[in-house]
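> Could you send the Tetratricopeptide repeat protein prediction when you get a chance?

Sure thing. Input:
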Amino acid sequence: MEQDYFKKGKLEETAKALEEQIEKDPGNPVPYINYGNLLSAVHEYEKALVFFEKALELDPEAGAAVYSMGIAFYQMDRFEQAGKFFLKALQNGIQEGDVHFMLGMCFVQKGEHIRAVPHFLRAYEMNESDIESLFQYGLCLAQLEQVKQAKDVFLTVTEKDPGHADAFYNLGVAHVYFDEPDAALEAFSHALSIQPDHYLAANGKKNVENKRQ
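Output:
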């Protein structure tokens, strides 16, 4: 019932329904997790952590609570703690692409791109419609100066999602790296056709054009 309320955006009704569940069944970790997720949805992350911690007191193996704690810490820019919880979620059996993706993002935020690579790749392997994981994988390869591999990844992203402006921009950067100005211009122009205010693509296009004058 609380999920129906949440879908309709009736947050107060959702909170009340969950409070009633907690009162009726205080030993059940699920309503605590749902209440924490409700608080996270309205950016009350510190308060949400209290409910996730309570759920874990009741069930230390509650993977959903562990994952939700990771999300809350990530949203608070506490990436070290977030990463520990995402890793624990994997250890607790939540072998899902989202967990690998978020763990990868924690490593990216800490500048540890080499550690992020296998998690983005795993997330994509688990769900090949997860274009964002593939894109982040390409960004990591580029950061690690594996530009040829990154270029191939960005090309794949643009083929799978022709509306991905950032992928076209990064594909353009890769073409510049390999001194392929025509292809670079095409990629930057494509990015701008999707997102006319894409500053980086506009700047990349201008730089290539200036070099050709």
